[in-house]
Amino acid sequence: MRHRDYFLPITRHDEVITAEEHAPAPTARTALVSLGLLGLALIGVVGLAKGVSPTIESGVEAAGLHHAVVGVIIALLVLLPETVAALRSAHRDRVQTSLNLALGSAMASIGLTIPAVALASVWLSGPLVLGLGATHMVLLALTVVVASLTVVPGRATPLQGGVHLVLFAAYLELAINP
Q1: Strand, helix or coil for residue 155
Q2: Position 3 in a domain
Q3: In sequence order, which residues have a C-beta less than 8 Å from that of residue 67 and are 6 or more positions away?
Q4: 99 CB contacts (<8 Å, ≥6 apart)?
Q5: Total structural domains in the chain?
Q6: Burial of 119 (0-12, 13-18, 19+ CB in 10 A)
Q7: Do the beta carbons of residue 136 and residue 171 sit within 8 Å?
Q8: Using one digit for the tens of pLDDT, what is the confidence trace for 167-177?
Q9: Separation CA 51–CA 45 (nearest Å)
């Protein structure tokens, strides 16, 4: 409750959008229908990623890039719907909603994908390989430490945001050029 104002939608001028501008809460039936449609959309996005992965693999191979770039491109493809929604919110001057969408989708993807794959490996044959080498494990650990230092104080500073962007750029560089 003490950080509620961090998650209220605001305009570029730091004005909180009032509750009257929000849509009413959905009924239970609407929520269940939305949940079902969300599941169908998820299956569609994952199916699309699975269907285009051979083309992406051949393009990455033809460009002479490392095979890990395929995973980065597919992750960007899976996050594309949330990215579009976040950009639309930012364009409508709902910056906080935009940030919530962007960070929430990234955290959900990371926080749900690895446990889902680990759980599936219980029933599937073969070893569980997450595909992280020693360099990427160090970057992951460094990202966790920096994220902890960013989240604990409450609000992020531009310097902390810059550090996160540098870590992301390092990850992309090392994925392309190991």
Answers
A1: coil
A2: no
A3: 57, 60, 61
A4: 86
A5: 1
A6: exposed
A7: yes
A8: 888 888 887 77
A9: 10
pLDDT in tens, 23-47: 677 899 999 999 899 878 777 777 7
State how far the Cα of 54 lies from the Cα of 64, in Å rounded to an integer.
15
Asked if the structure places residue 78 within a domain, the reply is: no
Residue 46 lies in a domain: no
Q: Domain containing 151: what range?
A: 131-177
Task: Give the pTM.
Answer: 0.56
Task: Put residue 129 in one of left, alpha, beta given phi > 0 → left and psi -120 to 50 → alpha.
Answer: beta
- Reduced to 3 states (helix: H, G, I; strand: E, B; else coil), residue 59 is helix
Rounded CA separation 119/113 (Å): 10
In a domain, 163, yes or no: yes
HSE (CB half, 13 Å, CA atoms) of 113? 13
